[in-house]
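Subject: for your reference before the review

Hello V.,

The reviewers asked for a structural picture of the protein, and I figured it would be easier to keep everything in one thread rather than splitting it across files. Below is the amino acid sequence we used in the manuscript, unchanged from the supplementary table.
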Amino acid sequence: MRRAACGLALALGVAALAGAARAAAPAGDEGAAEPTAADAAAPAGGLDLDTLVVPKPVAPVQRKPEEDIRRVLRPENSLLQTRENLDKSIRERESRLAQLEAQEDLLRRDLERATAEFEALTAARDAERAVVRRRLRTMMRVKERPPIEVLLGSTSFKAYSGELEALERLYEADRRRVVAYREQLAVWNRQREDLARRRTNLANTIETIAYIRQDLAWDQEEKTALLEAVRTQAEFYAVWAREMEALDEVVAKKVEEVLDPGRARLYFAETMGALASPIRNPDIVGRFGIRKHPKFGTQTTSRGVELVPFRPGNPTEVRAVYWGYVAYIGWIRGLGRVVILDHTLGYASVYAHLDQATVEIGEKVKTGEPIGTMGDTGSFWGARLYLEMRKDGRALDPLRYMK
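And here is what came back from the structure prediction:
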């Protein structure tokens, strides 16, 4: 009776093992389903590569910069506003491009690591699968052996019982091996899906970079077309000159807004005539007062001076001409990125076309201290520093007060 029960248990156990192995068999190596863009976006403040899902980007709409420039001359449009929009767009795209290029490098290195781990896991899975298959074949052969053979081949009933117990232990060990293999296979499937996600993230990041580069190229092409139009075509130059004439009132109003009569007094007036140069070894490329265009003969009035370094550096530091309080950092249409220093008692200095500001609002700076870097934001004539000095909102010639 015990012999029949043991034989039946052994047969059922082997069948169960075979069924478990078939259920655990890998479903093929085809790629897992791609994550959707709605699953997640790049987390703010850093990348969690274990959960990151980079959405598939949308191709940019084709643009024609020449047609866009022609539309600028409509009465409701502004050359200066268009220039500022392009500046901001280019800066935003360049910043985003730098972030994505860093992300691409990070994803490439992460994918190499994940691929190596997955290959090692696959090798371990294949080795274990081979062992499980061998054990199943052995157990199937045991199943096919009639129990009477086990009994007749035993020297005693005790030996027969011992052999059955050994077979039961072997069956239990093999059962645990199959269960462990199924768990290993589940991990392998999760890793395969995770690897597919990481590959998709990298592919989508590369595609996004390509699209941003295309948009950036179109922005730069449109910017080049805009600058060329103002420099070479009288109708564009006339629009630019007319808009720049209105700049005096805009800057005067901004200076009035940001100066604080409650700040501790500085001795700007007493130092005028010996103010520091805002850039080292400057060349003057635009003077204060009336200017006449050499080609169009148009006269414009400049309330400041334009300076470039004699030997351009990268970047060119812009420095405070005298002690002052940082009263404003931001954009002014026609001047690009601007820093305004409050020298107290109604005096202010305005630094424009900056690439970056390196100070903070309210900060007190001393003579010659860097406040930013020279750029071409808002400029139609290339990289330069535009410098104004004002007293109670009225523009002064900066060159009269510098060393």
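For the response letter, the relevant points are probably these. Residues 100 and 122 are 31 Å apart (CA to CA). The longest strand covers residues 347-357.

Happy to draft the paragraph if you're swamped.

O.
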